[in-house]
Amino acid sequence: MATINPWKRFIGLLPGGVRTVAIVRSINTTAGLSEVELRTGARVTVRGVDVPVNSKAYIADGVITGPAPDLLHFDVDV
């Protein structure tokens, strides 16, 4: 039975998981893994080898979902 709660319907439209941008530092094609560096400087191993080394990639739930544009990042406090 479908819910009529508008909040739950809205949440159902949103994509799941967290997506972040990282720089690919190394690729292991035989294992299908890449090591990426987050903005904090931490390095994480994720699945996927589609983005070249030293390029930015979107990471969602431990998987490279595609290349990210090389744009400047600004933090703004409000």
How would you sum up this structure, described in words?
The structure is a single chain. The chain is mostly beta strands. It has a domain at 16-65. The chain is built from one helix and five strands. The protein has a five-stranded antiparallel beta sheet with strand order 3-2-1-4-5, with no helix packed on it.
Fill in the keyword field for this structure.
extended, single chain, 78 residues, mainly beta, 5-stranded antiparallel beta sheet
Main β-sheet, spatial strand arrangement:
3-2-1-4-5
Q: Roughly how much helix do the residues carry, as a percent range?
A: 10-25%
Q: What is the averaged pLDDT score? A: 90
Number of helices: 1
Strand % is: 35-45%
- How much is the radius of gyration in Å? 16 Å
Low-confidence stretches: none
Largest sheet: 5 strands, antiparallel
Helix and strand succession?
Answer: HEEEEE
DSSP strand tally? 5
Question: How would you describe the shape?
Answer: extended
SS-based class:
mainly beta
